[in-house]
Amino acid sequence: MTADLTKGLLRDLNKLHEFDEDCNVILKIGRGFDINSFNAHTVILKARSQYFKNALKDLKRNSKLFRKENFLTLEVPHISADAFKIILRYIYTGTISLNDIANQECVLFMLDLIIAADELELNDLVDYLQDYIIENLSDWVKNNLIKIYQASYGREAIQQLRNHCVRLIEDDPRLVFKSDQFYLLKESNLIDLLKRNELGLQEIEIWKYLIKWGVQQDPPIVDLDIKNWDLKVFTKLRDRLSNLIQYIRFFTISAANYFEEIRPYGMVLPDQLKEDIERYYIIPNSLPPSHALPPRILPKRSKVMVNLPPPVSKPKELKSDDSNDGDDKAKVPKKIPIPEDAMSISSSQTDEQMIPLRISTTIHARNDSQSSRDSLLSPSPDIDFDSVLINKHQIKRISRWIDGTYNLGIHGDINNINRFILLTRGNRDGMSGDDFHSRCDNKGPTIVLAKVDKTNVIVGGYNPNSWSSSNEWIDTNQCFIFSFKSDGCREGIDDIILSRIKNPSVAIFDGDSNYDIGFSDLQLFSGKYEHINYEKKLMIEKNFTIINYEVFQVIMN
């Protein structure tokens, strides 16, 4: 039978610790004016700590060791005296009490404690403290994420805690950007963060945090009013951000945000970058340079795409019998009642009847019925177009809708046909939001087509702007949605519906992968339709399923 009498052993060892009996080493802990002395026994220190075993091994080869009277003196400047007081008790007794670390002020001491344990190579204590922190101090970790992340960098024994911090950052990078300690983040760590595609923030917010980081570096820029800055201040900020600017996805930021939030800091940006950005915003249909980084994506928290958010400001409605003038909260316009005769479009109606009159700015339409009949009988000019959903007749019709001509005839001068370049096809490249944005963002104007399951219906929409995953509403009166209800070869009896936007402020929601392809009324991936913001009703069904989709880049002639 084996008896466990370690309790008495620990009691007696604690007496050695408390009464300094037969101590033969003085430990000077700390540096500068914050140095405290502790008496200890070399035999216990060497038995318990590899650090002390190495430091006390050979007095002649260690310049920091020297004899004073009958004591050895060892300086340990890189840990705090408060932390070592707890650690020395642990070395003698194998016990540690964290009950006194109850409030937030004391909890901040925990980081010093675990770093000191790591420095002294007390691996069992390091493992215990890591487990304790992760399991019991989650709020403290989140509030001090940057300090912990940087303090644990390069410390192999504290990788468990560092990996925990990394997981928190991956789940919600905003914890770093929105932290009061954000300015303490080292440049190298900030670069690692900016390289990530998933940050959970809009790019313009990331830009603002980057400016804040640069302003708060030591010595901080005290005057925060940029109107008062001279060339010296701008140069200081430019130097601080010179290695970071390249990781901002400028071409996913809206023109309005660029004008308000980035342009005032133009002196901070490299000249070529400014020229590329201004060309992109000023010249119609300009594309980002080939080296531009793709839009960031938010980590998916659900397989179901969330609904489109309400616009920032309430769009102007055509009619509102029950509006509340005192309610200034942003909201999606209420559903406009649809007369019974507008629920469907007769096959005998022409495009002129279905679409409000607009003035063509590109080519003249032949509006007489004879011209329309003649055009139906004339041969179709060749057009290079790769689609499995619609044919050349239908893409020519879409091209004329884009150009602003609405006659029923589908033929005409081939020189006036826009070019359509296939960017993605669902059954070939994938049907997810990530697949869509990785291939279609920053490509300029696009046409999106989708095949509705168990029908011969094709629905789609035209976005005159680039998709950019900005999570902002695009205000435009140039977009439209549409449907075809046959294969398009028998133009005289096709059910063709073209529906242009009537509330431009909610025309298109340029969402990231967490949102649907958002033509406001028509949400393709989630299969939802509600007639609210576009003129004509496309379908009676409010829910549908798509089995394939295609996206084409539109190159204007």
Automatic annotation (TrEMBL):
Residue span, BTB domain: 23-100
InterPro entries recorded: BTB/POZ_dom, BTB_POZ_domain_cont_9, SKP1/BTB/POZ_sf, TLDc_dom
PROSITE patterns, per the entry: BTB (PS50097), TLDC (PS51886)
Spans annotated as Disordered: 309-334
Superkingdom in the source lineage: Eukaryota
Domain TLDc: 388-555
One GO term describing the cellular component: cytoplasm
Compositionally biased region (Basic and acidic residues): 314-331
Identification of the protein by name: 4798_t:CDS:1
Native species: Funneliformis geosporum
